Amino acid sequence: MWLFQRAISYVANYQNELERRILTRAFYALSLDLELPQFDTTTLVNRLRREGLSFATKTLPQLNQAVLSGLASGTFDCPTSFRLARRSRLPVFLGFLVRKIFDQNGRVLSDACPVAVRSIRQICEYAYKADFAYSPSQISAVLDRFKENELNLRSNVISDDALLVLCSIITEQFFSDFDVSDLRPRHGPGVTSNVPINNKWDYQLSPNLPVYSLYGRYFFMNENDAMDSLNRYAVSKSFDYFRPSAFAKVILVPKDARGPRLISCEPCENQFIQQGIATKLVRHIETHPLTSGHVNFTSQEINRALAREASITGELATLDLKDASDLNSLALVEKIFRKTPLLDAFLSCRSDRTALPSGEVVLMNKFAPMGSALCFPVMAYVIYVLLYSSLVGLGDSESAASVYVYGDDIIVPTKHATYCSDILERYGFRVNRQKSFSSGHFRESCGGDFFKGVSVAPVRLRKIHSTYGECSAYEGLAVMFSKHANELSIAGLHHTAEIFYGLSEQVFGKLPFGTTRASYLHRHCRHEELESLNDLTYKGGFRVLSRAVSIATRHRVGGSSSWGHLYRVIGMLGRDLILPKIGLYDLPRRWKLRRGWVIPA
Predict the structure, then answer these.
(1) Could you tell me the residue range of the domain that residue 122 belongs to?
(2) H or E stretch including 236?
(3) Do residues 451 and 71 lie in contact, with contact meaning Cβ atoms separated by under 8 Å?
């Protein structure tokens, strides 16, 4: 037993060392792309080697948060993890960038540089969302917070006040023409708590599950078919057939360096109906005159565009919620939807319990956790109607028309930002103050980060961890490295992109060029260069490739031959390219030529 544990420890240590080396190379390349001074480059690499991954995932994000807080409050407060410059409130590390944003006393400059903000965020947030292996303490902390949120919901009594009465009246009118009996149910792509992912049509029959009483016709053709199904469909060995109801179960998936994300897998029957209700609910909300363009599920562009505009004008504020899905209480949903038939539909396919990895079963006071198809549609509508009704109650209909919601990303008028935050917290939600911005020129919503109208969103490394010894896992990791390298290349971080192109090519070999629209693994190439390749003259019925050769040789990277790059360029042009005769250029003999394509031997 001890030998097995020692082997596991060795593999884990090897994996951590491999990830640290990749990250060290990536940060060194980033310092070259951002043209950092030698002192900052040396400090970055040395602290990463000395402090390990925690420097990239915990210490550097503290500096980023200090910069964003300084932009919002007007004064920079340097974290204790970084040494201050002499007679200054600014850090020595990245000091030449910080001085373009704040003066020596830490006050925001009137002409603060957006490029400097983006460079600092690129360094400090690069590895923040990477999926490093999680420690037992991180996993335990996530599970403890899940249970703590349940206790908070249980103790938080929501009174039936005037605002909730107004919300219920608006909701009744909003869904007056919504037919909950006419659905098109479907299975989702994820796992369920009681059925294997590839066998979802073989229901684990639970006759007393509420979903059968209301939507049984979607499972069986008639009553006789339901009775015959007792022998036709398999009954789960882990779930008692005569159990009053099945329940969900918790799994952990990667989120960011702070810890995993908790997802609750729903019973197959519940998820089947949830998908049907959610599809119709999303379509109704996105097309209704009251919420069209204000509550969105399919596109984040509206929130991003508003965040960009708000970073210039300051008229709108961006709010972010913490653990939003876990704090949307069942009691709140019941009070808002009490006058609609939707409430019975929701409750019929809602799981009231979930099983933790330890086997402990938790009674849920939230409406639905992440994993339920109804989690985000219902939560987004609840947030919107609360804020809209509260601003209408203030007599400010113009401000009520400026509320926008995408999941837990919220945009409200700046003058009512504090009031809206108080309303949400009154009904159990928790506003993340560090990621909410109502002052200054920085705004953040739906992945769009803007300062004075300029995008300052960094390119983040999200996938770096792989299960040691599994070839398929490393192939999947190489695919993610290739996509990440393209993101870096598009952002102009070419040295860093080469690190991940090289890691990907160790698995797949040399990658061809392609544009952002390419559906295959490729090295990113600008569209205008591809068009210049297509703009070739004909000679004797064949295309002349002299310009292709010149462009290929300009893209030599890592010592590769120009012929290898010519092959990449030809490969991404498509099968409409007619190759010249062999005599026109002395192509390597190892290449086999056929009409319209080049294939290595």
Answers:
(1) 13-128+447-465
(2) none
(3) yes
Smallest Cα–Cα separation from 24: which of 436, 511, 396, 496? 496
Tell the residue number behind the tokens 């998908």, with chain if given.
Answer: 275
C-alpha–C-alpha distance, residues 484 and 30, integer Å: 14
Q: Three-state SS for 594?
A: strand
Q: Three-state SS for 224?
A: helix
**494 or 136, greater pLDDT:** 494
Check the CA dihedral 583-522-479-30 and report its sign. Answer: positive
Q: Measuring CA to CA, which residue among 150, 181, 179, 164 is closest to residue 337?
A: 164
Looking at residue 397, its amino acid is: S
Distance CA 34, CA 416 (A): 39
**Taking Cα atoms as reference points, which of 334, 363, 296, 340 lies closest to residue 427?**
334
> Does residue 100 sit in the same domain as residue 164?
no
250 and 349 share one domain: yes
Domain shared by 226 and 356, yes or no: yes
Contact 397, 301 (CB under 8 A): no
Q: In terms of Cα–Cα distance, which of 78, 97, 28, 37 is closest to 56?
A: 28
Backbone angles phi, psi at 310, to 5 degrees: -65, -30
Q: What angle (nearest 5°) sits at the alpha carbon of residue 155, between those of residues 152 and 157?
A: 115
Residue type, 408: D
CA angle 270, 273, 278 (to 5 degrees): 115
Helix pair 546-554, 527-534: axis angle to 10 deg: 160
pLDDT digit string, tens, across residues 420-455: 999 999 999 999 988 899 999 999 998 899 999 999
Residues 587 and 564 in one domain: yes
Model pTM score: 0.81
Q: How open is the CA angle 553-556-562, to the nearest 5 degrees?
A: 50
* Overall number of domains in the chain: 3
- Contact assessment for residue 584 and residue 542, using Cβ atoms and an 8 Å cutoff: yes
> pLDDT (tens digit, 9 = 90+) per residue, 510-564?
877 777 777 677 788 765 555 444 443 333 323 334 444 444 444 444 444 444 5
Longest dimension (CA), the chain: 86
Distance CA 205, CA 191 (A): 17
* Residue 64 forms part of a structural domain: yes
pLDDT at 454: 94
Please answer whether residues 16 and 133 qualify as being in contact, where contact means their C-beta atoms are separated by less than 8 angstroms: yes
Residues 124 and 98: beta-carbon distance below 8 Å: no
* Distance of alpha carbon 502 from alpha carbon 488, whole angstroms: 13
C-alpha triplet 30, 135, 329: angle, nearest 5°: 100
HSE of 303 in the Cβ direction (CA atoms, 13 Å)? 28
